[in-house]
Amino acid sequence: MDKKQNFKNANADMDDKSKKVRRAPKKKVCAFCSEKNAVIDYKDVAKLKRFVTEKGKIIPRRASGVCACHQRDLQNAIKRARFIGLLPFKGE
Hints:
Layout (H helix, E strand, L loop, with lengths): L1 H17 L12 H4 L10 H5 L11 H4 L3 H17 L8
């Protein structure tokens, strides 16, 4: 019986710890929506590099905080820059 009581006490401690309040993460704001006159251009390599990983992958919306409309424009601009040769297809 001693082992059963210890097991019950251990579970009671776990329940207390798991009831911690989780705060919602801070909402990310689209970098292009905040700048009203921001235009996503394939020739602006410095701006596009912020949204590409070291391996050359495009950073997803949930990580970058860009809205859906601007993510599509960003994706097309990165692909155009890759095709022309301004951005590499693969990382170095």
